[in-house]
Input
Amino acid sequence: HEEVGDLLLVAVNLARHLKVNPEIALRDATKKFTRRFNYIEKQVAASGRQLRDCELAELDGLWNRAKRELKQV
Output
């Protein structure tokens, strides 16, 4: 618990040093993650399955595809 807190403080201090607003950076990263995860959910649903039916390798492949296809978004 304490080590994770220390890690978070280091990340915030690094962001400040780089003149990056850590709150905005985290918000943007969360939005990007959500877009990619929604993409995966839609692809799996289109195949008539649920996430729990997929192998990890397939989900990794879909994640990589989402990164490529959603890059412009």
